[in-house]
Amino acid sequence: MISWTIFLCALTPTLCCDWLRHYNHYSNVTLTLLRHMGGQLTEDESPVSFPFTLYTQVRHHQEDSQLIFIRDSLSRISDLYRHDDRSSVTWDTDMTHHFLVNLHRLKEELSTCVLTKKHLNRPLRRYYRKLLRRTLCRTDGSTASWEIIRKETELHLHQLQLLVASIINSAANRRRSTLGQY
After folding, report:
1. Contact partners, residue 121, CB within 8 Å, separation at least 6
2. Please, what sign has the CA dihedral across residues 13, 166, 130, 150?
3. What is the pTM of this model?
4. Arithmetic mean of pLDDT, 87-116
5. What is the DSSP string of 95-126?
6. Among positive and negative, which fits the CA dihedral 37, 100, 41, 66?
7. SS3 for 156?
8. How far is CA 44 from CA 125, 143, 148, in A?
9. Over the stretch 139-152, which tens digit does the pLDDT of each residue have?
């Protein structure tokens, strides 16, 4: 006889991805480090519009696609900070290091919830490429560009928290309704 847990996990991996419940905590730690590693966030506008429509669209996708979107977003954010030269910024070195470690942990832990290596969202990749080109590449890593990246990172981390919260709520509702049927 197959156990209900295995059956539910096969239907919806998010039901079995216990780490999602901890995502918000680690994301909040990452956001705090992001805010404290530099001064006040810039009020300068990004040369690339924030992709609110991508977040809106992905909320209507299945949970596995949403998880891939979150994983890929965290990966793209992490890639931004791998740009060769951060010497122009006066960020706190230890805070920056801990921020990057936490960002990597978010991505790695979330990857355990994703059952595929495939990447789904081309517009997301295009957005991050455009952001990189129009900020860091165009200005050779100027302080102003890095501050825009930091501001955009905060926006993305907030949007990803909202997306994870909606996944957790949907999974909990589905679990209750599934278990209520038996």
Report:
1. 54, 58, 68, 69, 72
2. negative
3. 0.86
4. 91
5. HHHHHHHHHHHHHHHHHTT--------HHHHH
6. negative
7. helix
8. 23, 12, 7
9. 888 999 999 999 99
Nearest to 136 by CA among 147, 126, 125: 147
Q: How many CB atoms lie within 10 A of CB 38?
A: 20
| Positive or negative: CA dihedral 150, 129, 107, 86 | negative
Q: Which residue has the higher pLDDT, 18 or 66?
A: 66
Among 179, 180, 171, which residue's Cα sits nearest to residue 4?
179
Give the separation between CA 25 and CA 61, rounded to whole angstroms.
Answer: 24
CA-CA-CA-CA torsion sign (94, 98, 104, 108) = positive
Give per-residue burial for 51-75: e unless 16+ CB within 10 Å, then b.
beebbeebeeeebbebbbbbbbbbb
Report the pLDDT value the prediction gives residue 116, as an integer from 0 to 100.
74
Find where tokens 């290596």 sit. 117
* Pick from 147, 156, 131, 146: nearest CA to 27: 156
Token digits of residue 67: 């998880």
In Å, how far are 17, 55, 64, 103, 172 from 114, measured between CA atoms? Answer: 9, 18, 7, 17, 18
